[in-house]
Amino acid sequence: MSMQNTLKRTREAGFTLIELLIVMSVMLVLMTLAVPQLLKLRKQANQTSAIQSVRTIGQAELQYNSAYPANGFSCSLPNLGGSPGSGAPSAQSAQLIDPALAAGQKSGYTFNITGCSKVTVNNQDMYTSYTITAVPQSIGKTGDLGFCADENNTIRQDPAGGTNCTQPIQ
Asked: Can you tell me where the transmembrane regions are (predicted)?
């Protein structure tokens, strides 16, 4: 009788293989539903961050133009950046944007300033226009849309993820 009680207790102590397989199957189904949504949310967050970063760079350009009128706008992200502890701001290190953004990459996007137009005044180059671009580092994974802005701070998007920005942001 005591042998029977011992066998009965050991059988009741754990899960059966079938029960474990059922639980694992349910978890697998839930994960297949959740992972694509998580990736979609991450892409949307990256795109929102990219739009905000383009706005930040645009505002920094206006501040740069005001602080260094002989230079006009900056045609270089590193010129807008710089470490606040490295000394006084200058035209080559204006300290207007975060050093990480000045490096050109943030939240799955690559940022650049292109299409600069310049005039020479008193033997000094003065930039009168620019285009800020933000493109996903991996289209479809880090973002779907490309973003652009010009000296008028009008942000537009490229549905293909490039720099052919013709549509207003939504």
From this structure: 20-39
Topology classification of domain 20-85+104-168: Fructose-1,6-Bisphosphatase; Chain A, domain 1 (3.30.540)
Tokens 């066998």 found at: 7
CB neighbours of residue 147 within 10 Å? 26
pLDDT in tens, 132-156: 999 999 999 999 999 999 999 999 9
Cα 44 to the center of its chain, rounded Å: 10
pTM exceeds 0.90, yes or no: no
Kindly report which listed range (54-68, 75-89, 145-159) carries the lowest average pLDDT score: 75-89
Q: Are the C-beta atoms of 130 and 144 separated by less than 8 Å?
A: no
Locate the domains of the chain by residue range: 20-85+104-168
